[in-house]
Amino acid sequence: MNPSTQLARVIVDELARAGVRDAVLAPGSRSAPLALALHDADSTRRIRLHVRIDERSAGFLALGLAKASRRPVPVVTTSGTAVANLHPAVLEAHHAGVPLVVLSADRPTHLRGSGANQTTDQVKIFGPAVRFFAECLPPARDVGQVVAVRATVDRAVAAATGTRTSVPGPVHINVPFEEPLLPDVQEAATWPPGREHEAPWTRVGGPPSAPPTTILP
Q1: Alpha-carbon distances of 162 from 116, 128, 156, 166, rounded to whole Å
Q2: Max CA pair span of the chain
Q3: Do 209 and 22 touch, CB atoms closer than 8 A?
Q4: Are 81 and 120 a contacting pair, CB within 8 Å?
Q5: Which of 154, 116, 111 is nearest to 134 (CA)?
Q6: What does the pLDDT look like over 62-71, one tens digit per residue?
Q7: Closest CA to 84 of 123, 50, 52, 111
Q8: Measured between alpha carbons, how far is 33 from 100 in angstroms, rounded to an integer?
Q9: Is residue 81 part of a domain?
Q10: Most CB contacts within 10 A, which of 18, 60, 108, 147?
Q11: What is the DSSP letter of 18?
């Protein structure tokens, strides 16, 4: 399995383990690994996939699904200005405390600032409007990276739902994908597994308990 396919499958698998039940996709070439992974999750009824052509519409659909279900809902876009089209939905989620999860596919990091097509600076593009930002490392055949990606997904979902802060809201995971973006038809559909019984890799605890009140004489 090529590294980009593996990375996308790990991300989607961990999202399902973290409680995601719906996802919205605005298709594009760079996000093809995520699109295929979500399609597989939809076919096995782990995550219900909704497809919208326009990124702005996709963002608001994900916002509505998250608000109605009170669950984190990812919205997936390709690289470049497509990501910026999610800004209105991100701001709405920020002000309303809705657990929107932006999953933006990106060109390889070495193409930044090179004038490559469909490329812009997506790092922290939403500024302080998101509760959490992370960028996945470039895809690699490395078990340690798989563990780090699973933990990142779990921390993002915890931030979106306000597990530690009690302040839910949007989060952003940026995912640079190297070519090839499509799996080889000869490859076996396997990748490093997660924990048993569909458990998330990392559990994020709630806010620390307040110390007991002591009444002085």
Answers
A1: 37, 16, 10, 4
A2: 77
A3: no
A4: yes
A5: 154
A6: 999 999 999 9
A7: 123
A8: 21
A9: yes
A10: 18
A11: T
Question: Over the stretch 169-190, which tens digit does the pLDDT of each residue have?
Answer: 999 999 999 888 887 765 555 5
The pair of three-digit structure tokens given for residue 135, joined into one six-digit string: 């960028």
Q: Using an 8 Å Cβ cutoff, are 100 and 130 in contact?
A: no
Indicate whether 95 belongs to any domain.
Answer: yes
183 in any annotated domain? yes
Domain that holds residue 63: 3-193
Stretch (H or E) spanning 84: helix 81-84
Q: For residue 48, with 0-12 CB atoms within 10 Å meaning exposed, 13-18 middle and 19 or more buried, which class applies?
A: middle
Q: Which two tokens stand for residue 115?
A: 């004038």
Domain count, the chain: 1
The encoded tokens of residue 160 equal: 């979106």
CATH of the domain at 121: 3.40.50.970
What is the pTM assigned to this prediction?
Answer: 0.85
In a domain, 116, yes or no: yes
Going through 44-160 in order, the beta strands assigned E by DSSP cover 48-51, 73-77, 100-106, 132-135
Report the length, in residues, of the chain.
217
How far CA 117 is from CA of 88, 108, 126, 172, 197, in Å, comes to 24, 12, 21, 22, 42
Give the model confidence (pLDDT) of 95-124 as tens digits: 999 999 999 999 987 777 766 666 788 999
